[in-house]
Amino acid sequence: MSKENEKKSYTKRTSEQFNWWRAFFQVLVCKFFYMIRFKFVYRLEVHGLENVPKDNAYIVCPNHLSTLDPPLMVAVMPRNISFMAKKELFDIRFLRWWMDWLGAFAVNRESLGPSTIKTVMSIKKSKWVFGIFPQGTRGIPGEIKGVTKGFAGLAKITKCDILPVGITGTNEVKRIPFSGKIVVNIGKPIPYSDDTDDMVNKWGEAIQNLTGFKYIPNDEVEKEIGVKNDNCGKKL
To answer: 156: how many CB neighbours lie within 10 A of its CB?
Structure first.
């Protein structure tokens, strides 16, 4: 298999690939080894587990602060989670193997192709749930902005509700026992609809309530950028 074909094989998953072996490996790594760190270094607190649906017709949508967030979500949620990972990470052999066995799949963040939709549908057919960070990349503590519409589009297509999860504290690197503090607040599911803009804003507002971070809608960000550009033009 060529390198290009090998990469492509990690963008599409079937429900059979979300099997017992990957589930066991994910549980071992995240719910055992990572959980030790979360409990004894970061004094992890989790609230709102009663809001998690009993079925798997939902998408886990947390805010994003650090590389600890994906294993944290797997550690605290009742079901195995398959997260998207940018395709460039699958160019690295060890990371490709590691993420594959943790249930992640490759995606082009600039364009969610048909293979992404098929994979999310395959996850729904399994006992796993799909997870995505709506911000697309790690954000700055204290604010929620740069939210993409991709997660809302996938919720609409797959008819899955959106489960907002607020994370605080993972951005602070701690190694001394009980020196950190991570809080996970799980909100009530946001029903999927045909209005993706409405789903995006409802998610942002939910995360604002769950974290205390300020939600800045994309239109406000664009206005701010426009004002800055105008001011720069006047100075010139």
So the answer is: 16
Instruction: Note the pLDDT tens digit of each residue in 137-165.
Output: 899 999 999 999 999 999 999 999 999 99
Cα(106)–Cα(99) distance, integer angstroms: 9
Residue with tokens 């080894």: 33
Structure tokens at 211: 């974290």
How far apart are the two ends of the chain, measured CA to CA in Å?
55
Q: Which amino acid, 186?
A: I
Give all domains of the chain, ordered by start, each with its CATH number. 3-235 (3.40.1130)
User: What's the token pair of residue 34?
Assistant: 């990572």
CB count in 10 Å sphere of residue 88 = 12
Distance between CA atoms of residues 57 and 125, nearest Å: 9
Q: Where are the alpha helices (DSSP H) in the chain?
A: 3-8, 20-26, 35-40, 69-76, 93-101, 114-125, 150-158, 196-211, 218-235
8-state DSSP, 188: P
Q: What is the mean pLDDT of residues 127-143?
A: 93
CA angle 130/15/185 to nearest 5° reads 20
- For tokens 């066991």, name the residue: 24
* pTM of structure: 0.88
Q: What does the pLDDT look like over 5-19, one tens digit per residue?
A: 444 467 778 899 999
Instruction: Work out whether the CA dihedral 64, 67, 72, 73 comes out positive or negative.
Output: positive
Residue 48, class by beta-carbon neighbours within 10 Å (0-12 exposed, 13-18 middle, 19+ buried)?
Answer: middle
Q: What are phi and psi of 190, to 5 degrees?
A: -100, 115
Give the start-end residues of each E strand in 14-146: 45-47, 58-62, 81-86, 105-107, 129-131, 143-144
